[in-house]
Amino acid sequence: MNQTYALTAVTVVVLATVLVGALGLRISRTTSDFYVASRSVGPRLNAAAISGEYLSAASFLGVAGLVLLQGPEMLWYPVGYTAGYLVLLVLVAAPLRRSGAYTLPDFAEARLESRAVRRLAVLFVVGVGWLYLLPQLQGAGLTLEIMTGAPHWVGGLVVAFVVTAAVAAGGMRSITFVQAFQYWLKLTALLVPAFFLVAAWAGDGAPRASFDARAVFREHTDVRIAEDVRVTLDAPLTLGVTGEVDGRTYERQPVTLATGRHTVRAGARLVFLPDTAVPDTRSEVGMGVSSWSEPLSGDRAELRLYATYGLILATFLGTMGLPHVAVRFYTSPDGRAARRATLAVLGLVGTFYLLPPVYGALSRIYAPELALTGDADAAVLVLPERMLGGVAGDLLGALLAGGAFAAFLSTASGLTMAVAGVLHQDVLPASPAAGTRSFRFAVVVAMLVPLGGSLAATDVPVADAVGLAFAVSASSFCPLLVLGIWWRGLTPPGAVAGLVTGGGAALSAVLVTRAGLARAGWTHTLLAWPAAWSVPLGFLTMITVSLATRSRIPAGTAAVLARLHLPEDVAVQRVEQAGRVGQAGRVGRAGRAGGER
């Protein structure tokens, strides 16, 4: 990839982000503009902004990488991401807007009249937000490293700086324009190269990728191993080796590896002959060819029927609880506009997700070694150079690099805005007179923590990390929102118990998985895809504890539910009628009291 072209593309994206954000800053005049864009964002603009922030590094890079590694069964990721908005449209969008809240903790306190529930919701908003921010910064580091050879931490630092400046300067009004612009930029960045790559594939004789077997090297390929891996061979394999394999050090020697497992140390260089199958590799996190319908057995716990169901539940139900998604509905003028925006999002997101699988399929043909080196997330970025080369490959690669950076910037902006809003209101001490100055300090804190995490952990697959964030969201906020909106029997003790049990269990599973403490087999699978058991656990706990504490149902539950479900104009009329009836009752009582005296 031409470094000059790529850096130019990234620079243009960054400058465009700053300029578009400055436009929003110029028309931000009130505190409401700053926090929720004065609740005046129309459905079309809001839909583009929601799509822009939702289509993150996992969408732009991770889905193609998973298709490269696992095959078409990983299309459950984009299907789940898109279908999550259908659930949100039916159950949550309009009532959440009618709540009048600014954040998810605001909604929790208003619905349940409990500070304890609010504080717990704050913890989960911050936890999910930081867990989701981490892969955005890692993806940025990967992109800049591939483009320029810069250290991995540079890309994350650039995104952190630009996002912090944009969010702190212009708030929600600026971020809305930035994210809407970046959706169309990302779509263009994937769509235009896809046409040229498919044309090049057709001109090459339209070779097909075999998804029920390992990818094959089409030519003489030199692969450098970035981390220790275990290689599993079904047949003897002859290759050139420089480095340590199975405890022995080789220097540019031909080696024949026997059937079975072999350990290759980081830094080794392997030279594969044409038509050689890419070996099945297992790093600490474990990846390999598998089938979604295959039952769990042995130590191949990466992708089984149970894991697929866990993934479906996490993506279907986790969308509604993502803090940067929920906060966007507070910017709609009313519940009807929130529904229309959500419906438009289904179309925009669905269109975008047609493209990453194309890159994943082409990568199995033209860049199969990425499955061996641990750089599968880079498949989208390297394809133009592999398939086209020359100036055309450099230009298209630069366009993809710019689109990838737009993905990092837009999602990181939304997440930082959501986390900073919660930190500002509930965590960091601030005086009312401080106004937006204290919010800007919260923005810095919201970004520093995941930036530190991205520097410490550099080997987490982008889509995997995002999937875990969805699992935590689905296990905590999904039960709270669904039951809080549709069941009058929810009580504060029930909400607290459900958040701690369901969300806490999912978060613990995430931490154990990422620390590599889960053993292969059932243990690893249950913890790596926790939503299949943690979501039902959260719902059952909330319902059971609420039924046991019926006396704790908040006194204002009926009024709050009426506000959530009635159209805004009807709700206002009901309130006015109740006020007139109450006033008439007070006048009548006063008259009777006067007559008695």
Task: Give a written overview of the molecule.
It contains 23 helices and seven strands. The radius of gyration is 26 Å and the shape is globular. Helix 3 (43-54) packs antiparallel against helix 11, helix 11 crosses helix 16 and helix 15 (379-387) packs antiparallel against helix 16. The chain is 68% helix and 7% strand.
Counted beta strands: 7
Structural class: alpha+beta
Distance between the termini: 94 Å
- With helices defined by DSSP (H or I, 4 residues minimum), what is the helix count? 23
Mean pLDDT: 80
What does the largest sheet look like?
A: 4 strands, antiparallel
Helicity range of the residues?
55-70%
Comma- or semicolon-separated keywords:
single chain; 597 residues; alpha+beta; 4-stranded antiparallel sheet; 3-stranded antiparallel sheet; 23 helices; 7 strands; 7% strand; globular; disordered C terminus
